[in-house]
Design a protein that fits this description.
Helices cover 29% and strands 32% of the residues. The chain has 97 residues and is α/β, with parallel strands linked by helices. It has a five-stranded mixed sheet with strand order 1-2-3-5-4, with no helix packed on it. About 19% of the residues have low confidence.
Length: 97
């Protein structure tokens, strides 16, 4: 079965669009990018996301310590399951807020 992920959400308008489309996953980019968000912004946006959409975080060439720090930071990010990993280049983590 095919799963759909829409990635790069950084505005409330982006959340409104994905809530209409109802993909399986919505991605928040923590890697350096024009779509990058910090933990606080991702948490704010996740609260607006439809409960049926699973939030994921996207990290590229990120140290495990930084990911662990984000997950333990008190922003209520909890490590779910690793959805995608390839040669330590890209990691997508399922986030639960």
């Amino acid at each position: 079965m095919t799963k759909i992920k829409i990635c790069g959400l950084k505005r409330t308008e982006d959340i409104s669009y994905v809530n209409e489309l109802l993909p399986d996953f919505a991605g928040f980019v923590f890697a350096k990018s024009s779509r990058q968000v910090d933990a606080k912004k991702a948490a704010e946006l996740k609260k607006l996301l439809a409960p049926t959409i699973q939030a994921v975080g996207v990290f590229v060439n990120e140290a495990a310590e930084r990911i662990a720090a984000l997950l333990n930071k008190g922003t209520n990010y909890l490590l779910g399951e690793i959805s995608f990993i390839s040669d330590s280049i890209a990691v997508v983590l399922q986030l639960a807020l």
